[in-house]
Amino acid sequence: MREYPGKVRLVIKHYPYKYRHHARIAAEAALAAWEQGMFWEMHDIMLKNSPTLDRKSLLGYARELGLDMRRFKGDLDNMRHLKLIERDHALAISLDVYNTPTFLFNGRMVIGNRPYAYMKKILEEELARAEKK
Question: Do residues 58 and 32 lie in contact, with contact meaning Cβ atoms separated by under 8 Å?
Answer without folding.
Answer: no
